[in-house]
User: Fold this.
Amino acid sequence: MKLADAALLRQKVLIAGHWQDAADGARMTVRNPASDAPVGHVPRCTEEDTAGAVEAAHKAFAGWRTQTAKARAQFLRRWFDLVLLHREELARIMVSEQGKPLAEARGEIDYAASFIDWFAGEARRINGEVMASPWADRRLFTLRQPVGVAALITPWNFPAAMLARKAAAALAAGCTVVAKPASQTPFTALALAELAQRAGLPAGVLNVITGEAATIGGVLTTHPLVSKLSFTGSTDVGKYLLARCAGSLKRVSLELGGNAPFIVFDDADLDAAVAGALASKFRNGGQTCVCANRVFVQAGVYDAFAGKFAPAVARLNAGEGLAPGVDIGPMISDSAVSRIESQVADALARGATVLAGGARHPRGGRFFQPTVLGDCTPAMALCRSETFGPVAPLIRFEREADALAMANDSEYGLAAYAYTRDLARAWRVAETLEYGMVGINTGLMSTAEASFGGMKQSGLGREGGLYGIDEYLETKSLALGGLA
Ligand code: ADP
Assistant:
């Protein structure tokens, strides 16, 4: 890979301000999902390495928490500037390990940077309160203080943004961090850590370690010096980590799977709905937790919607992320392609029809054709579980109440979308959907200013927005007596 700044491709982990190998020298290979070619190696950290990173973060905590909010904000601001300065290299590193189209990778770097910018501002607004005291001789206050060492476990689908959204909030709050990026995509995280170091972050405040998830996760979820775990990934792993954290009662934030409904009503602006569905469903090849997973279309516009949507999907170009004009990259793994294929087979066996795509891509490897299936039903596997691939099932409905009932009939509750031009319906739908995020007449709603997170089995807590920093803060009540 040709990078203007080759030092950004770090093949070591950052512990206590030092770039180092695993204690036993073990490494693992990172491969490009489009070609399977090796991108590089990263250390396979041991339990001792992980404990060392936790101890380094704990040691650095005393100094970091007592820096002024302004000093922490200034650090974040320098980090933000460096991330944008190196946007192109970061985006190319990301494409090489993650596979997404370069334009999307650049967009993700901007999105990641926007969280650093946002939390640089939030750092200076961590304010307490003064309560009206019931006692004449005492005053009551709240102080907001960092929880301590935060362990951050992040997924491969947004290697920069998921780390930045957690790390910037934690650092702004005054926490120190041990981060474990996904094994498939560690280089983006390591490059962000390199830039944090260049921004002058004190040693040990941000540690990034790589290796086997179970080995590292085992330590992070049980170590007494870890106060907080923030995880983004699958619901099963999230539940497992939550249970493990119970032993030492760590504070836990979870961003888990989704099964987003995308509802198109008869009164929708159909062109806008098609554009929104394309953006929501096919970004990152359908590998996002907020991707439209079930497209409900009211009977009066079903054919018209399908007639516009399917050809637009068929025009999407699958290919290697650095190639020009590519809309969809490879899936992350062979097993992901197999899962998508079996979900499509299940739908076809139960009566779905192919309106676009419908099979693996002729390019082979991990590519799957952008697909639209008509005549789907909620019982099909691809409507019950997250597809995490470029497949849009269309489900016809007659009445608003039916669509809402089907939409809410899920154990998940992350993102939901609806298109309508009726204001009363828009409001009704927004209030009825049991989802942490609702987009009305838009397929994209994630931004640093809005809170991100799910209800039901989609997670615990919120990231970004006004509440994101709360996940890293304790509220301490202070009573000051003897004032009579
Ligand atoms: P996905 O299906 O998107 O890969 P995972 O939940 O498997 O989602 O992975 C998300 C993150 O969680 C990754 O960083 C992965 O390495 C990590 N992870 C997976 N299993 C464990 C585990 N047992 N302990 C700690 N981290 C884990």
Summary: Residues 153-156, 180, 182-183, 213-214, 217, 233-234, 237, 240-241 surround adenosine-5'-diphosphate (CB under 6 Å). The first strand starts at residue 13 and ends at 15.
